[in-house]
Amino acid sequence: MKFLIEDVTVYFPYDHIYPEQYCYMIELKRTLDAKGHCLLEMPTGTGKTIALLSLITSYCLSKPQSPMKLIYCTRTVHEMEKTLAELKILHNYQIKHLGPQARILAIGLSSRKNLCVNPTVVAAENRDSVDAGCRKLTASWVRALASENPDVAMCEFFENYEKAASAAVLPPGVYTLQELRAFGKEKGWCPYFLARHMVQFANVVVYSYQYLLDPKVAGIISKEMQKESVVVFDEAHNIDNVCIEALSVSVRRKTLEGATWNLSRISQEIDRFKATDASILRAEYNRLVEGLALRGNLPITDNWLSNPALPDDILKEAVPGNIRRAEHFLHVLRRLVQYLSGRLDTENVEKESPVGFVASLSSHAGIDQKTLKFCYDRLHSLMLTLEITDTDEFLHIQTICDFATLVGTYGRGFSIIIEPFDERMPHIPDPVLQLSCHDASLAIKPVFDRFQSVLITSGTLSPIDLYPRLLNFHPVVSRSFTMSLTRDCICPMVLTRGSDQLPVSTKFDMRSDPGVVRNYGKLLLEMVSVVPDGIVCFFVSYSYMDGIINTWNDSGILKLVFIETQDVVETTLALDNYRRACDSGRGAVFFSVARGKVAEGIDFDRHYGRLVIMIGVPFQYTLSKILLARLEYLRDTFQIKEGDFLTFDALRQAAQCVGRVIRSKADYGMMIFADKRYSRHDKRSKLPSWILSHLQDANLNLSTDMALHIAREFLKKMAQPYDKTGSSDKKTLLSQEELEKLGDGSMHEMSY
Amino acid sequence: MNNGAGRRINGGAEEDEDEDDVNGDLDAWERTYTDERSWESLQEDESGMLRPIDNQALYHSQYRQRLRSLSSTAARIQKGLIRYLYIVIDLSRAASEMDFRPSRIAVIAKHVETFIREFFYQNPLSQVGIVTIKDGVAHCLTDIGGSPESHINALMKKLECSGDSSLQNALDLVDGYLNQIPSYGHREVLILYSALSTCDPGDIMDTIQKCRKSKIRCSVIGLAAEMFICKHLCQETGGTYSVALDESHFKELILEHAPPPPAIAEFAVANLIKMGFPQRAAEGSISICSCHKEAKVGAGYTCPRCKARACELPTECCVCGLTLVSSPHLARSYHHLFPIAPFDEVTSSHLNNPNCKLQRNCFGCQQSLLDPGNKPGPAIVCPKCKRYFCLDCDIYIHESLHNCPGCDSLRHS
After folding, report:
1. What segments bear the compositional bias annotation Acidic residues (chain B) (predicted)?
2. Is A124 left (phi over 0), alpha (psi -120 to 50) or beta?
């Protein structure tokens, strides 16, 4: 269907549209007009992605004089593929209505692991080995060697791509990763490098968060994006954590050992080069004197990682004299590793600011701040000079240099925490030195500065006013939409008491009480007997889950139980079997952990999740030193109270967990918040509005037997056939005519 | 960094005060009354006595609505008149639950009885068998046959519930039986499922495909909640899936299965079937009954081909295998193919019109269509013969008679 939003004709590939999608588009359009940033919350299953894509592409089409690029960031490869598939539908629709002028180029960019078509390379098991395998075949010196010696292996796809040179372009269209690979295979071009090249020309680029947020990667991939771009972060409720992780480094004993080993290998290499061809080292020295800026004219395959600091600072300055010579640099690194391992030997928990750390480093090891700052680039340059291709072997020393550069660059917003052992297991020494970033705005700041509009959107962004403070930006629009439903297909409940009327909670002083554990067990058992197919049960932590399952072990449970573990492969297997059990009508319960992989990325839609039980409030581990340091920083810098942040974080995790069950309007599911703390207003009010609006007052303070009764009635009600479009007074699907009839005014009433 | 050791920052102290806010939640006993609102169905008459409201009008309007919804879909479609239906009753542990009063299984048994009677009334040419699932095993309670009494008696004897339920076992069993049915018969399974899971020995998806291949139409009525596998089964085999809200809803749902369903298109080939119309034996004649294997006196039917005696019609002759029916049975099935068109409602002004004096009385029962207060009551008119009927006659004509007296009398005169 086609309709007008203010002055933009929107092409929407479906015949009907949800009212909230329409509202969403209006807000989006205003953001684009204002060239500002925005925050939008809309429940999952309401077609966020397609609304977003169709508005932005239509906006570009209506304003051909100012071309805009859409950069769409997703969290997983799976989501990337889904987005591209939707875009494809939209694109076909637009071409049908507008003809060839609507043609765009849209590609997805992912790591080599997902794009490589060379059978020998892609067979490697993890991402780093695929990267290294590719470099072994495509690095410039390997290819130079191969031109002399035909026995040296090369990647034929890359060679073909190089030969085609500027002729290697993708014709306009929408390419999913799959299609990109197929295209590459057919033409014999390397899809990865082709995609990397085409990113500059594409109208729509879909890739992972890291390509924009992690400065190491962003420097290469996203450097050339124009300012007139719209950046979308989808499913962005955890964006602050992603930002923080991008700038945090942890060093363990193993890292240091690996680094020492790496250093000795590098020194061997240097010796070898000195013996055979000293001129290369000298050439590098000369280049470093002139500054790192010249690095730009290295061939594209060679620049694999870039500086984690802000590039401008570094490129202007020349590399300090004491690390220009390769041997000197190695000495510096050795001293740094030694110093770090000395620090790790500590018996106590230590916390330090980067400034203090640098000061002590320079007094003990004689390394000053400026030297530290350059470590990463210097190592990078050295490895290129030494023609090292198996980069996956050198991850440890890279981590150390990454750490050094971060410490050297940022004085604020970080802290260094050394813990001699894991808090939970004080008997096993496992020293770890963590450089943790507290300020999410550091990593995302360049994105906000550089691009015209940044859209942050997700199903759960409540409370919406906290995000601008955490990320330190000023949105022009921030809104939360509710879901218009033909029937009350979600049924949230707050369960505060067991059937014996004793309160249940995972509060620290109550959680190990046998009565509470028994009540939780009873709740699950009784629910299992009334809910068909799949049930998902989220716990606050692995340790609590283990404990509680052990306690329940005696009682027999009707359904099959699957448990998420920290092992990814095991979890995937458990999930597969869980799905099979649900499909075959056996029914199953999946035990999982809030903040785990399952809570973040796996959907339990339709019969895979008829009920979610959230046992307890998923607060973070509040005694963790990193969290305490971060809370302190947040309080001092952004005036966010500790309690507020913790509650916000816990509730967003809880909402994320329960949001897994409902993925479309035809779906239905129940959510049980099993903790008495949820009935308190300050906790409850932080849930997203689409859950709150269905949370009736009567369901706020339930005991197990009452919840059971409600569940029975709800399931029966939901099993009745229903009318998809909704009755006349409660329209949830709008056709084109209805949409045209609706003025702006009435639409606003419907939105939140 | 030692201040964090003893403290937990999640709003510690104030948490203990319990906000036991009084919510307007109704107790369970109250809720049943709010739903029914039984006090509203009472009214006071002139002498101050309480008596139930005459809710016939309501009943009529509901009936009209149902009729309309049925007729809208009922264009001339082919229907399977000769049905071979297996009723699968889940006797697992879940069937003994008490959420239906007195228990699920009691309610099921009660309505299965009504259903079987209604089924044979509407489909005299069809046959029924009963299968039960108990302890994960499916048993054939009664073989497929045409006698309602024998099924009902057998069912009422076996109503204990225990163990798990297995959909696959039941389907396998039924599939085995129904595969032997001649091709003109329509194979159907109606599953009354109380459990919320199924414990199967193998892959149920294979079994579902097998049922689909042997063209068995599987329908499920659930008693607790929607189950994916049941829905899948019904979708695959062209059946209907419904979940009962309460007892009356359950009755409605099960009775929906009494009229013959539309035939599966690919399967609906026209076929000629050999049938025998046996004569009723003379009173007092003694013969050996072929179904009971003993000598019986009087009241039997004699197969026209082999002269064996059968006790009831319709049935299949035990000796020569001929289908034995009587002509009223055929006639009763006939109306499913040619239903009477629904009657139109008459506006009251039309009724008051002095021009059509004749039509002041119902053509069926000859009662006046006017109310005691001489106000026009509700009336309807047959679109073909333009005769007027009262609502009671309308229901009688459509539900039981299946002939319009007006049209029939026109043809005679």
Report:
1. 13-24
2. beta
Average pLDDT rounded to a whole number, residues B262-281 = 72
Same domain for B292 and B236? no
pLDDT digits (tens, 9 = 90+) for A655-688: 888 888 877 777 888 999 998 888 888 888 888 8
Gap between the Cα atoms of A728 and A748, Å rounded:
19
Rounded Cα gap, residues A436 and B332, in angstroms: 83
Answer yes or no: is B232 within a domain. yes
How far apart CA B401 and CA B405 sit, in angstroms, is 9
Is residue A440 within 8 Å of A470, Cβ to Cβ? yes
Helix intervals (H) in A277-368: 278-289, 311-316, 326-344, 354-364
The Cα–Cα gap between B397 and B383 comes to: 14
Residue to substitute from A353, A533, A619, interface B, most B β-carbons within 10 A: A533
pLDDT per position as a tens digit, A673-732: 998 888 888 888 888 888 888 888 888 888 888 898 889 888 888 888 876 555 444 556
Q: Which amino acid is at A475?
A: P
- ipTM value, please give it: 0.76
**A190 close to B (CB below 8 A):** no
Q: Are strands B286-289 and B294-297 parallel, antiparallel or unpaired?
A: antiparallel
The burial class, CB within 10 Å (0-12 / 13-18 / 19+), for A19 is buried
Number of domains in chain B: 3
Name the residue with tokens 């955490």: A470
Q: Which domain holds residue B382?
A: 344-410
Q: Tell whether B297 and B179 lie within a shared domain.
A: no
- Least Cα separation, residue B292 to chain A (angstroms): 42
Q: Which of B210, B216, B212 is nearest to B186 (CA)?
A: B216
Q: Which two tokens stand for residue A301?
A: 């395959």
Q: Which of B198, B226, B257 represents a domain boundary (last residue)?
A: B257
Which residue type sits at A315? L
Ordered structural domains, chain A, with CATH: 1-64+475-484+726-751 (no CATH), 70-225 (no CATH), 247-439 (no CATH), 490-719 (3.40.50.300)
> Do B88 and B172 have their domain in common?
yes
Cα separation, B243 vs B193, in Å, equals 9
Task: Give the contacts of B160 (CB within 8 A, at least 6 positions apart).
Answer: B91, B134
Look at residue B62 and tell me if it is in a domain: no
> What's the rounded Cα separation, in Å, for the pair A522 and A507?
19
The verdict on B201 and B222 lying in the same domain is yes
Paired tokens of A644 = 């507020």
User: Closest partner residue to A715 among B167, B200, B224, by Cβ?
Assistant: B224
Tell me how far apart the alpha carbons of residues A495 and B204 are, in angstroms, rounded to a whole number: 36
Residue pLDDT, tens place only, A195-236 = 888 888 888 888 888 888 877 777 666 666 777 888 899 888
Assess whether B325 and B361 both reside in one domain.
Answer: no
Tokens of A92: 């076909």
User: Does A717 contact B245 at a Cβ distance shorter than 8 Å?
Assistant: yes
